[in-house]
Design a protein that fits this description.
Blueprint (H helix, E strand, L loop, with lengths): L1 E5 L2 E9 L10 H31 L3 E7 L9 E3 L12 H12 L3 E2 H5 L3 E2 L3 E5 L2 E6 L2 E5 L1 H6 L6 E9 L6 E7 L5 H12 L7 E2 L2
Length: 205
C-alpha cells in the first residue's frame, strides 16, 4: 500500500495482480506439492490485501485499488463476441479470491456502481486473430468515503479504451476523481488520457 495526501485527504493506493489459473507443469510426483503451493499463494495474497486495507483504515485513509484479477465472475463481465451472451467462467481461484476479499472489505467496484448493466471487457480472447470473447478483469475499487468525498459517483469518471494499448494485451482503463474543487484539472486529465481512444460500453438489455 502506497500512501499520499490529496487536498488534505489521506489516500492509500494498492495494486493487485491475481495469478492466472495455470499451475506450472511438473512431474506427477510433484503435482500435489504444486497445487499446495498455488493454494498457499492464494491464501497469502488474500491475507496481504486484508492487512493493507487494515493499515489504511488505521491511518483514516480512503482507499483506491487497481487489480488485474484475471477473473470475471459475473455474467455481464464475461461475454462472447459478437453475440454478447455470457461465456463460461474460467474458475480462476486467485482472481475469484481477490474479488471476494475486496467485496468483504466493503470496497466498491467503481465501474459497476457508475455503469450498472454495462459491458466493457478489458481483455479479449482471440482465436485465429479474431476476438471470440471479452472479459472485464481490470478493475478499480474505491472506499465509499472517497466516492462520497468526490460528491458522489457522478464525479468519478471511468473509461475503457476500445483497443489494446502499446505492448499490453489489455485495454486501457482509467479512473479519474472529479470533485468540483478539482474540476478543471480533472477535465484536462480526462482529455489527455482519452486522446486517440474511444470508450467501449455495451449496455445489457
Amino acid at each position: 500500500m502506497v500512501f499520499t495526501v490529496i487536498n488534505g485527504m489521506p489516500i492509500g493506493m494498492l495494486c493487485i495482480y491475481g495469478l492466472t489459473n495455470t499451475i506450472p507443469s511438473v512431474d506427477k510426483k510433484d503435482a500435489a506439492q504444486a497445487l499446495l503451493d498455488y493454494t498457499a499463494a492464494k491464501d497469502h495474497l488474500a491475507a496481504s490485501i486484508k492487512d493493507a486495507v487494515k493499515e489504511a483504515r488505521a491511518r483514516c485513509a480512503e482507499i483506491i485499488v487497481y487489480t488485474d484479477c484475471n477473473d470475471a465472475m459475473d455474467d455481464e463481465d464475461r461475454y462472447l463476441v459478437p453475440s454478447m451472451e455470457p461465456c463460461p467462467q474460467t474458475q480462476n481461484l486467485h482472481g475469484a479470491r481477490v474479488i471476494q476479499v475486496l467485496e468483504e472489505l466493503a470496497l466498491i467496484d467503481v465501474w459497476k456502481l457508475k455503469y450498472p448493466g454495462v459491458k466493457a471487457g478489458t481483455f479479449d480472447k482471440e482465436v485465429g486473430g479474431k476476438v471470440v470473447s471479452s472479459h472485464r478483469i481490470d478493475r478499480f475499487y474505491m472506499s465509499g468515503g472517497l466516492i462520497k468525498a468526490c460528491g458522489g459517483i457522478s464525479n468519478v469518471e471511468m473509461q475503457v479504451a476500445t483497443s489494446k494499448m502499446g505492448l499490453s494485451d489489455h485495454h486501457r482503463v482509467i479512473a479519474l476523481l472529479l470533485p468540483p474543487a478539482w474540476a478543471d484539472v480533472g477535465k484536462r486529465s480526462l482529455a489527455h488520457f482519452s486522446r486517440g481512444s474511444k470508450t467501449r460500453r455495451w449496455r445489457l438489455d
